[in-house]
Structure formats: structure tokens, C-alpha cells
Specification:
Helix content is 50%, strand content 22%. The protein is α+β, with helices and mostly antiparallel strands. The protein has one domain. The termini are far apart. The radius of gyration is 25 Å and the shape is elongated. It has a 4-stranded antiparallel sheet with strand order 1-2-3-4. The relative contact order is 0.11. The longest helix has 46 residues. A hairpin with a 2-residue loop joins strand 1 and strand 2.
């Protein structure tokens, strides 16, 4: 049985604090971007996750390779942790998943606006036809 793991990365992206929530389940990565206003405190982040986790819109899943866990020297582990903390930003897989989600939302927006445009055109056409009929009747 595969594990499900999640990770929240919070960083400052001028002018807002942004959180990237990564979720890995059965070898697939899904990502959600959360925009905070001011710098969130730890308890505010925890409260946000507890209250809004099920309302988050995750990106489509991206296949990831499994990480092999090896015993790592504690000093090496400290250096890697320090590098991850110093490194501001998001992993490339996360960026890919976010881009995929953004493209999907763009397609949805385009189809919705196209439908609205077509409905407006149809309404105007019917209105014009009705006016022509009334003029033809001589009223």
C-alpha cells in the first residue's frame, strides 16, 4: 500500500506570501497554490489547512518517480535541510503541475466566455427578428 504525503512550502512572492501544497499519492503529484496576505504565523497556517483542506483545488496529477530512502549522514542531512530552507521557490514538478492546472482553468474560462458570447449573439438575433416581424405587420 502506498503512502500519501503532503508538504506545504510557504515563501514570499512580492507583494504576498504564497503557499504551495504538494500532495503525493500512489506515485502521482498534485499541487495547489494558496495566496496568503500578510506573513502567516504557524498556527494560522495549521488552522487554514484544517478548515480549508477539502476546498482546495489541486492540479491534475503528474507522475513522479519513487524516492529511495537511504541512511544519510546527519551532517549531510543538516546541509541538505539548510539548502532547502535557503532555496526559495517551488520544485520543477510542482511548477509543472501548477502550469497544467492554470492551462485547464484557461480552457474552462475560454469555453464559458464563448458560450456567453454565443448566447448574447443569439439573443440579439432573436430581438432583431422580432422587431422585423413587428415592422412587417405594420404595428
Amino acid at each position: 500500500m502506498d503512502k500519501v504525503s503532503g508538504r506545504l512550502i510557504v515563501y514570499f512572492e512580492d507583494p504576498f506570501w504564497v503557499g504551495i501544497f504538494e500532495q503525493i499519492s500512489s506515485g502521482k503529484l498534485t499541487v495547489c497554490k494558496i495566496t496568503f496576505g500578510a506573513e502567516p504565523k504557524d498556527y494560522e497556517i495549521q488552522e487554514f489547512i484544517l478548515q480549508n483542506y477539502y476546498e482546495l483545488r489541486f492540479s491534475p496529477s503528474v507522475v513522479t518517480e519513487k524516492e529511495v530512502k537511504e541512511k544519510i549522514n546527519p551532517k549531510r542531512l543538516q546541509r541538505e535541510v539548510r539548502k532547502q530552507v535557503d532555496h526559495v521557490g517551488v520544485g520543477t514538478k510542482s511548477q509543472l503541475a501548477l502550469k497544467l492546472q492554470q492551462e485547464q482553468q484557461k480552457i474552462e474560462r475560454k469555453t464559458c466566455s464563448r458560450e456567453q458570447r454565443e448566447a448574447e449573439k443569439q439573443f440579439q438575433f432573436e430581438l432583431k427578428q422580432q422587431k422585423r416581424k413587428e415592422k412587417h405587420k405594420g404595428r
